[in-house]
Amino acid sequence: MLNYFLKGEKGTRLRFMGMLLSAILVLLSVFTLTQKGLNFGLDFTGGYLTEFTTSQSVELKELQSFIAKNHNGEFELTALGNSHFQLREAPSASTTSTTANSLDWQSAVTQNDDINAQVLSSAYIGSQVGDELFDQGCLAMFAAMIAVMLYLAVRFEWRLAVGSVVALVHDLILVLGLFSLLQIEFNLTVLASLLAIIGYSLNDSIIVGDRVRELLRVQSNNVLSPATIINNAIKSTLTRTLITSGTTLATVASVWLLAGAPLQGFAIALFTGIVVGTFSSICIAATLPELLGLSAKNYEVKVDAHTQTLLDMP
Known about the structure:
two-stranded parallel sheet; protein-transporting ATPase activity; SecD/SecF_arch_bac; membrane; 12 helices; alpha+beta; transmembrane; 6 strands; 314 residues
């Protein structure tokens, strides 16, 4: 079915329409990021992190409502199990105020007979540590991007390399835009998922790019147009791409649904990255080089005048 849509001009038109859609989504993501920003988690902003258990199963909404009556600041309550909870408190302007809030709600949940909570751990993460983690994470992502660009520059002709890099940036921006739009917490696990997306997106683009390069090299007589060659390359790798993406998505979906709240952001980012990475490997990594003038001539063996003279000699 999909191979039918990738035939001839129809396939080329679909690829260009997909690239146009990608450009619109990137612009919307950038706009959302500039307007709403990211909802940084406690790993980056600092604050108190408390884990506690209850003697019996308690509904999350009921417990959240009860704690809100004894807490004056902002907090986020997460259920780690039926009777296991985690509470994150954003740092306030006054450390004394934050400490008082923590003591108030902890006393309330431990002394209430219906809840009868027991605090397992309570720790404070300073904002300086959060800033350092954010800087190191961004540095790791920047180093990964530089390594990818160097690898692509060596492996591919520059047009295919540019297409792969643009597809990679496209995937990261769309994931960040989704997190900004939905205000999903951005923490260290999500940052780690972005590094995983870089690797996955690169792998997908290289599979398609390698096939395009192979078909261009055998078309020394230029019988087929670059658009037809690219369509053929995508068709020949489409089954492999869909099977790989499908099995990976099934695994990530299982983590999303079964691993609980701590890994939910990681799974959402990775799931989104795989979907848009598969899309961009077709609509950007394989289509942008065509706009930049990629053709079979780029892979013709160039022979200098002296070598040509020797070849022409009887």
